[in-house]
Amino acid sequence: MNLLHHLLTTIVAGADPGPFALVRRDGAAGLDVFTGAPRTVSRLADIPLPPGPAGPRTLALVPYRQIGERGFACVDDGAPLECLALSGHVRVPLAEALAALPDTPTPVRDAAFDLPDGEYAEIVGRVLRDEIGRGEGANFVISRSFVGTLTGPALPAALAALRRLLQGERGTYWTFLVYTGTRILVGASPERHVSVEDGLVLMNPISGTLRHPGGVADRESLLRFLADPKEIDELYMVLDEELKMMATVAEQGGQVIGPYLKEMAHLTHTEYLLAGRGSLDVREVLRETMFAPTVTGSPMENACRVIARHERRGRGYYAGVLALLGRDDAGRQTLDAPILIRTAEISPAGALRVPVGATLVRHSTAAGEVAETHAKAAGVLAALGLRSTSAEPDTVPAGVAPAAVTPPDAVPVTVGAAPAAEVRLAEDPAVRAALAARNHGLAPFWLEERTPGAAVLPWLVGRRVLVVDGEDTFTGMLTHQLRALGLTVRTRPWGDAAGQERFDPTDADLTVLGPGPGDPESPTDPKMTALRGVVDGLLAAGHPTLGVCLGHQLLAGRLGLPLHRRSAPYQGLSREIEVFGALRRVGFYSSYTALADADEVVTAYGPVRLDRDAVDGTVHALRGSTYAGVQFHPESVLSRDGMAVLTDLLGWLLPDPSVPTGHGTPEPHTSRHPG
Hints:
This protein is of the alpha+beta class. The protein contains 15 helices and 28 strands. The strands form three sheets. It has an 18-stranded antiparallel sheet that branches.
């Protein structure tokens, strides 16, 4: 308590206490107080993590611009990667901390969203029409910020906000205040981005938002929310995207656990937990998982382009992470990193910024997403003493606000009192049943614990696969499934087909043309030009080839089938269709498709069998003598029967040498693959 007392008395006296952090982590009974020396580094790999006794070593503030380390687009606002090399640490019981923290919020003047509701709604409409509608991705998170200026000292105001968040918010992963000497971050993040302990890597995708600004959600509203297709799609899509990340940082990819309900003071979300074993340096784990699809979108690389194109300004620390790095008793690295959302950024001079974002999917409406940003800002704004009615559209002052927005009278905080809402609906039988129903159509491969070697098919062992990445890290999930079946897999980016590092696409037993965003018929897109050249070479050589989503579209186009942009995108959509004689439930992420008016066509590369939609003739799958393509994603968590589809296709393209006759045997599986 002495360390906290020293910090608070220094601040009350108007002096600078030096860098510190106050953190309450998920489930902790007390408030961790950290002090340390500030340091700015340029790369995640430079974050200090020295050896020594067990415990935390470094607290890093990772800005959104760090996404540039992965080569992804961003508006570079110069926000630094700041670290506190920790030297002091005590844990203070929560009641004592609450009693010591100040509770006098500072008025805020000129308070408003930087983008008025109407302007933000126009951006939402453009993204739905021009990006999701044209195949650039499945979902995108577009942000706006509530801004203002504190009329008094910044640190006391931030401490008062922390106290209110500790007392009044619930369902948080981290509640925190970090002061580096150059900036203050105070917030209550509900979402773990990634953690590593004892070799176990965990990620925690949270998506879907039920707003209840007036108090606790009621049961009927919650059940309607859990049945809402938009909210369901939103969670599935971020689940798939974080599984892509787990495919990179965990040896066997991630196992899906959940879903669960995340109940907060103003909002309720749905969430999954992903778990897998990994051995990477924790700084590399951070790099490979920048940044969560819940605050960017999918596919990730193109989502960053879309964000830069439509936001046209830097994000500061919004969508980045706090990262606490340390070591355990055995000297192994540890990591705990919440996403920087529901967080206020405050300069020492009092400039206030509260960034929030809405996840746009094909079911989104501009009005709904505007309302979501208000609701997401509500908790932090209330903690800062701004009126809770600012959580709803059109009640936040537009343009220049009055001289000051004063604290509301109706936000009491009492030391030792329970949070305002203690009702928990997660245990209601109907709610539990609605959550469990979310998994009924999902892939057992990702839901069930996997035993290494259990899915291996003997005739595939030792055979080599080359996956050409079309700029969608779904290829990571596909790679895990192919390896689980016994294949040796390597991946090359599409750019290698266009640059100096050219490769031979036939240098494997099978080449997989992977998924990716964009218009497959574009005459100017260098990616499409390069991949069309790869397809031509594979077809001319008669080399075994499998196309997935974009790869399927390009294959179909080179076979002479017309390509078509759907009037409504198939993004994050699960359907039961027939695939070469068997009913399969599979997941689609596409805006383009091939068309045909017959079930078989003759091409320059031989006859092609097609599986088409009976209503509009869209081609779900095709198969020729040495090639096959599927418009859906067998690797997606939405593809319940994805492993069975892959097994059938591999049996066609890489037949079992012990089975007589040619292609077409073995027959398609008629039951689900156990995964």
